[in-house]
Specification:
293 residues; alpha+beta; nine-stranded mixed β-sheet; globular
Length: 293
């Protein structure tokens, strides 16, 4: 296989993997891909014989458990683990998928069924690169302060006729979760989750700025509020600098049809550019909750 760099704006450059002769992606050495992924953090598979029907077969090779995607996203191809990306044409700020959740996917897969021509490009940003570009004041701030995500997650309840209370105390077995209860009137579980905005990468132990801090709240109905555990007057000023540094590290993925992108979701953030009204674009996604390596 042929390996080339995506960008020097990624700490380890990322990589594009293409065939030399054999276009059957299932002939690639799985262990070689795993080692590339651990180092590069993002891989684009290009010019292979991948199609909509066998992308899940390929992601199965690296997945021990899939995540439950948000209910707002439409299931695709008759498979509960394949979904549309968020609808609409608006720009989507940088975020790590479900980084506010106890079910934080390790790997995000994007498959390009129809590549956009002039707009709507997927953006990616290396959290390790962002963190390295922070000054000491910002590093210190995020290492000391935890973020609180105030959440409401929909659920489907059976046996409604047995309900006697509207709200019921609940717990979720995950560190940092508090104020947890079931709202049986709205069919939601409500809770708050503490999490640092900076995490250590499981593969190389480097620190990554990877979180949900830049998202626009009304774009993700599961997130009610995002705030610091301890109020700090510097927060707004620091977030302005964070966005500036993040924007300097953004890379646009210029899609080709049938590209498959494999992203370390606990190191990289992603988003998308605004989609022009007449632009045709079809991207679907898969979320690996737990990898098999």
């Amino acid at each position: 296989m042929k390996i080339s760099e995506i960008s020097n704006n990624i700490t380890s450059s990322g990589c594009i993997v293409e065939p030399t002769e054999q276009t059957n992606i299932f002939e690639i050495d799985k262990n070689e891909i795993i080692e590339l992924f651990k180092d590069k953090g993002v891989i684009i598979f290009r010019n292979f014989n991948l199609n909509k029907e066998n992308i899940i077969k390929f992601s199965d090779l690296f997945t021990s458990k899939y995540a439950n995607d948000a209910l707002r996203r439409t299931t695709r191809l008759g498979n509960k683990n394949i979904h549309d990306v968020d609808p609409g044409n608006k720009e989507m700020p940088l975020h790590s998928e479900a980084s506010y959740s106890p079910s934080w996917p390790e790997i995000i897969w994007f498959y390009c069924n129809k590549a956009p021509s002039n707009s709507g490009f997927t953006t990616i940003c290396d959290g390790q690169k962002i963190y390295k570009n922070f000054g000491s004041e910002i590093k210190k701030f995020f290492l000391e302060n935890q973020i609180i995500y105030d959440l409401k997650i929909p659920f489907q309840l059976k046996h409604k006729n047995k309900i006697t209370k509207t709200k019921r105390p609940w717990h979720i077995d995950h560190p940092g979760i508090h104020d947890c209860y079931l709202n049986l009137k709205t069919n939601e579980v409500n809770f708050k989750l503490k999490r640092y905005a900076v995490v250590k990468d499981k593969y190389n132990s480097e620190l990554s700025f990877v979180n949900h801090l830049q998202i626009i709240l009304n774009r993700d109905p599961q997130v009610k509020k995002i705030y610091l555990e301890k109020k700090n007057s510097k927060f707004k000023k620091i977030m302005k600098e964070v966005k500036k540094i993040s924007n300097e590290c953004i890379i646009d993925i210029s899609w080709n049809n049938r590209d498959l992108c494999m992203i370390n979701n606990q190191r990289f953030m992603h988003g998308r550019r605004k989609i022009d009204r007449n632009e045709e674009r079809d991207i679907i996604n898969i979320q690996t909750l737990k990898s098999s390596f």
